[in-house]
Request: fold
Amino acid sequence: MKKLIAMLLAVGVVAALAPAASAADTIRITDPADGTTITTSYAAKIVATDDQRVMKVLARVDSASYRNAACTGLGTTSASCTFTNPGTASQGTHTLAAKARDSAGNVSKTSIGFNVGTSIGGGVNKVMYAAGDIACAPGNPGNDTCMDAQTNALIGDDADVIGLLGDLQYESASLSDFNASFHKTWGNHPGNVLNPSPGNHEYRNNTASGYYDYFQNAGQSARTDSVEVGARTEGWHAETVGDWKILNLNTGDTCGK
Reply:
């Protein structure tokens, strides 16, 4: 009986000496962000901090076995690590989990969710909105067919490119009509986002001068595009977005080319 009591006391002493995990024991996945969409091969960034020495950091995707992350700072109170996924994660939703063990045996854990999918422009998603037949004549804003304000409201702040596919301003697309109607709705976006081409209504005066004056004239300096633009007689518009080359061509009969 005395031997049993002594053994229990010894266990109690050992348990009392084992330090409990503290709030200073943290592990964070800093990249990718929780909920982000990534390509199938990537390198996750992990940071572990501790009031003891960080001895090991491991990570895994879904239910795979934990693997050692490549770290700097192991044996100190802060370690920065990289975990390279070999690209085996299939398209869809996955979980990236990481854990760190300190010199006292405490384990800190964390996880994030991420999506694997195809992406545009070298791994960065791009968003394009496009429409034609847009703005009514200034004196005709109230009938049921004039929806340029409503359709413009559908364009989100995430727009990288706004394709304008002809007949942007009815009826004859003079510069004054552009400024009085189109400019107040679809034209109220940064010039380097707009990617226009003219339509037959822009050519009602044969030269589409109102269209070209609005989009290319030096007087429209606030709307000058930092992209390739064809000559006034050509009317094409080109823009590079990520790995995409977006060409908006002039299909008018009198455009010359």
Observations:
- The mean pLDDT is 79.
- The two ends are 105 Å apart (CA to CA).
